[in-house]
Specification:
The protein is built from nine helices and eleven strands. Strands 3, 4, 5, 6, 7, 8, 9, 10 and 11 form a nine-stranded parallel sheet that branches. A two-stranded antiparallel sheet has the order 1-2. The mean pLDDT is 94. The chain is α/β, with parallel strands linked by helices. Helix content is 37%, strand content 19%. Helix 6 (122-135) runs parallel beside helix 7 and helix 7 packs across helix 8.
């Protein structure tokens, strides 16, 4: 599990990525994750609008420390221009990677047509990624789910290819639909399908709770890295 993976100019020191978790992936948690072997750590998801409007609480969530190594900062929003400006701010705050959340199933996020709602708007999703790529000199990545309310492999792989064409340099995919939220079993088959569909690194996520799970998801899907969230 220690074969390095490159995301743009960022080289992960292991194939295990610490997932962004609301209320958990603050700075001390990220440092601990790094010390325990995470090749990339992720700050908790923040609102692009709040960041652009100068919300101090939001900025405080993105404080960094050299001890955490490479850090990804995850944004949610639905406006390409606003997301691009927020990406510029995260770069100024020290992000090595800028990530777009297109997977959050929480109602208050989805009702703003952000998070996993963007799975239903692939053209807008692509415009968001493209605007962010033009705005920063850092790798832009995206986290998605296996679908909105059911798994349509062709739709998911087409969505992933559109993100790659827009400039995304890695795609993390949680093997559950938006409707599943965190219930049921993750469908790793969709992760494998996305891996075959795109040329950028694919990070598998969902039901990785043990070292054996991490090895098995790589073997079954061919994914380049493993994202560990609630299992941590």
């Amino acid at each position: 599990m220690n074969v390095p993976v490159r995301i743009g100019d960022v080289t992960l020191t292991s194939r295990v990525v610490q997932a962004p978790l609301s209320g958990y992936s603050h700075l001390p948690y990220r440092v601990l994750s790094r010390e325990r072997g995470a090749g990339l750590v992720c700050a908790e998801m923040v609102s692009s609008r709040a960041l652009v409007r100068g919300n101090e609480k939001t900025r405080a969530q993105l404080g960094t420390d050299p001890a955490e190594g490479a850090v990804s900062m995850q944004l949610f929003g639905n406006d390409p221009g606003e997301m691009a400006e927020a990406a510029r701010i995260t770069a100024e705050l020290g992000a090595h990677v800028v990530d777009v959340n297109m997977g959050c199933p929480v109602k208050k996020i989805v009702k703003t047509e952000a998070g996993s709602a963007l799975l239903r708007f692939p053209d807008r999703a692509a415009r968001i990624v493209s605007a962010m790529v033009r705005a920063v000199d850092r790798p832009v990545t995206v986290k998605i789910r296996s679908g909105w309310d059911n798994v349509d492999v062709d739709a998911v792989t087409g969505f992933a290819r559109k993100l790659e064409d827009a400039g995304a340099l890695a795609i993390a995919i949680h093997g559950r639909t938006r409707a599943q939220a965190f219930n049921g079993q993750a469908d790793w088959g969709v992760i494998g399908a996305v891996k075959k569909a795109v040329g950028v690194p694919v990070i598998g996520n969902g039901d990785v709770n043990t070292p054996a799970d991490a090895r098995r998801i790589v073997e079954e899907t061919g994914c380049d890295a493993v994202m560990v969230g609630r299992g941590a």
